[in-house]
From TrEMBL:
Family that this chain belongs to: Belongs to the short-chain dehydrogenases/reductases (SDR) family.
Single Gene Ontology MF annotation: oxidoreductase activity
Alphabetical UniProt keywords: Oxidoreductase
Annotated InterPro entries: NAD(P)-bd_dom_sf, SDR_DHRS6-like, SDR_fam
Protein name: SDR family oxidoreductase
One Pfam family recorded for the sequence: adh_short_C2
Xref: SUPFAM superfamilies: NAD(P)-binding Rossmann-fold domains
Length: 93
């Protein structure tokens, strides 16, 4: 947490949360009813680790945005994919 910087956190949210919201706002009206959006989440939303607070918070927000956009944009599909969990380093602390 000591090295956490405002600009890095803001950029993370702007890229993975605000960007998809604004893209959906502008593109959904032009998409076919059977279209879909795919967002990128991450395993840190499910398994927070030391030093990954901003990434975990951003990925958690992506999960909420995905569910919310799915409700707002139905019948257009909205899904999030998440890279595989990293190899185990001996368990959680």
């Amino acid at each position: 947490m000591a090295d956490l910087e405002h600009d890095a956190v803001s950029l993370s949210f702007a890229t993975k949360v605000l960007g998809p919201i604004l893209l959906a706002k502008h593109l959904a009206p032009r998409m076919p009813r059977d279209g879909s959006f795919v967002l990128f989440s991450g395993s840190s939303a499910r398994k927070p680790a030391i030093g990954m607070l901003a990434v975990a918070a951003t990925n958690g927000a992506v999960d909420v945005v995905t569910r919310s956009l799915a409700v707002e944009l139905a019948p257009i599909w909205v899904n999030a994919i998440s890279p595989a969990d990293p190899p185990s380093s001996g368990g959680l602390r």
